[in-house]
Amino acid sequence: MVPDKDQHLAKKARMVAVVIAVTMLVWLGAQWLGGKLGLPSRYAFLLDLAALAGFVWSFVVMYQIWRDTRRKD
After folding, report:
1. In Å, what is the CA distance from 72 to each residue of 11, 13, 53, 68, 69?
2. Rounded distance, CA 72 to CA 7, Å?
3. What is the pTM of this model?
4. pLDDT (tens digit per residue) in 12-50
5. In 2-22, which positions are buried (b, 16+ CB within 10 angstroms) versus exposed (e)?
6. 33 by DSSP, 3-state: which?
């Protein structure tokens, strides 16, 4: 692989790792805070959907990274 391509893929992988970590921390914190504040369950479902969107995006980008590493140039 070309070094520029390796750097690009590494940057994408780091971004995915950060998104997964931040999504999980925000989701856990929001669930905890929502329970402490007694927010309605509809907000919990909204937060769940937002977290799922972040994880789905991460998996799509991970698949793109995997596909790019398998491609022969």
Report:
1. 20, 19, 31, 8, 8
2. 17
3. 0.85
4. 999 999 999 999 999 999 999 999 999 999 999 999 999
5. eeeeeeebeeeeeebeeebee
6. helix
